[in-house]
Specification:
Strand content: 5-15%
CATH topology of the largest domain: Lambda Exonuclease, Chain A
Strand order of the largest sheet: 1-2-3-4-5
Order of helices and strands: HHHEEEHHEEHHHHHH
Helix content: 40-55%
Number of strands: 5
Bound molecules: iron/sulfur cluster
CATH architecture of the largest domain: Alpha-Beta Complex
Structural class: alpha+beta
Distance between the termini: 58 Å
Length: 325
């Protein structure tokens, strides 16, 4: 690509790929608890076949760098900034440790939509594993962490949400069990934790290697069948998944109907139902859809039909076999 063809996005991604952190080949704490397969590639020392990375990640990196620069200028005695640690043989970098408070602080950037989810359900498992892993690493080094703080910043709104908790040995044990299971499992047997069209796979440096081997002209997921060509088992799994889905939809409808008994007249009122950290709120939304029957009738009046756009989809349905099979 010539320099004139490079967009700003290309330049940002190039910058990101040349950073030492992006060139790291070994498994780091930021990946513990995420995709097992990706962790397996790291542990096996596989060379990434894809560039990986995303503009969102670049924005996160730029925010990290700005925070780090400011902290380096203002750090007090005993504070740690961008501090390298190794725990259970896995390296990582503590964003900051504040000696005066005993706070270990990690900064994460996300979308406002994801931030709403985190505020309601708490940090994702890899974030818990990573920060408790860092606290354990500092404890081994004789640095006592009193509180773990994760500052989540929404890239699109600039909103900041601060999650704080005490270090939790149970989380460290869970992270170590996760690591052990990945280390003890053959690479080919490690779960692909995400779908090939998800952002996780889209930005994964092992995407090509991971989904290589799919049937030509079929879904990338067909590689799962190539690796395990037990058609009956896959069909049973599909049948069971659909039954579970139908059962979940029934249970959801029942619970929603039962809880409607509590619905306040004023939709701004939150109802506390005794769940930790969350209540219930009813939201009514109105959407304006085209009244297709009326549109058809209007066109019919002048002897015309509304324009149509063909759309094709492939459905997978169960159908009875012909008699005798
Ligand atoms: S491509 Fe997706 S499933 Fe495969 S290793 Fe990467 S994140 Fe995991």
């Amino acid at each position: 690509m010539s320099s004139v063809d490079r967009t700003t996005a290309d330049l940002l991604l190039e910058w990101d790929r040349t950073r030492p952190r992006s060139r790291q080949r070994e498994l780091g704490w930021s990946e513990v608890g995420g995709c097992r397969r990706r962790a397996g590639y790291r542990l096996a020392g596989m060379e990434p076949a894809d560039p990986g990375g995303s503009l969102q990640a670049v924005m996160g990196t730029a925010i990290h760098d700005a925070v780090q620069q400011r902290l380096n200028e203002t750090a007090a005695e005993g504070d740690l900034v961008e501090y390298p640690v190794v725990f259970a043989g896995v390296p990582g970098h503590v964003d900051r440790y504040e000696a005066a408070t005993g706070d270990l602080v990690d900064v994460k950037t996300t979308s406002s939509r994801r931030l709403d989810h985190i505020r309601l359900h708490g940090p994702d498992r890899p974030h818990l594993f990573q920060t408790d892993g860092y606290a354990a690493a500092l404890a081994v080094a004789g640095v006592r962490v009193r509180r773990i703080v994760i500052d989540y910043i929404a890239r699109d709104t600039g909103e900041l949400y601060r999650h704080a908790r005490r270090p939790n040995p149970a989380v460290v044990r869970e992270a170590l069990a996760w690591l052990r299971s990945v280390r003890e499992t053959d690479l080919d047997m490690l779960n692909r934790e995400y779908q090939p069209d998800s952002p996780f796979c889209g930005h994964c440096p092992f995407r090509t290697r991971c989904w290589d081997g799919a049937v030509h002209d079929r879904s990338p997921l067909s590689v799962l069948f190539v690796e395990d060509p037990d058609q009956q088992r896959w069909a049973e799994r599909l049948e069971r998944a659909r039954a579970d889905k139908a059962d979940a939809a029934k249970r959801e409808a029942e619970a929603k109907g039962a809880l409607d008994a509590l619905r306040p007249d004023d939709e701004t009122t939150m109802v506390d139902v005794g769940l930790v950290g969350k209540g219930l709120r009813w939201k009514t939304t109105t959407s304006n859809n085209i009244d297709i029957d009326r549109v058809r009738a209007e066109y019919a009046k002048v002897g015309a039909r509304p324009p149509i756009k063909p759309s094709t989809s492939t459905k997978l349905v169960f159908a009875p076999l012909p008699d005798g099979e």
